[in-house]
Design goal:
The protein is mainly alpha-helical. It is built from three helices and no strands.
């Protein structure tokens, strides 16, 4: 059971990271539905859930990298204020 709790905590952490990156609730929901194939996380076994959580974390890390890149000098991307 502790493995499942850790995976659920990692999902929650990924959701909080997306929120911190500026994702709307609707965008977060869309990512979760996509990653978890429109099934509730509780319907997966721990073995099935683990790679899905890794995929979610990978997507969040890629989003962070893109945001850092877009905000860096070489990109020259400056969103309007």
């Amino acid at each position: 059971m502790s493995e499942r709790l850790e995976l659920l905590w990692r999902i929650e952490r990924a959701m909080l990271s997306m929120q911190a990156l500026g994702y709307t609730a609707e965008q977060i929901e869309k990512v979760l539905l996509d990653v978890f194939n429109h099934r509730p996380q509780g319907s997966y076994s721990v073995q099935e859930l683990a790679p899905l959580v890794r995929n979610l974390e990978k997507r969040v890390m890629e989003a962070k990298r893109w945001i850092l890149y877009l905000n860096s000098g070489p990109c020259k991307f400056h969103p309007p204020h």
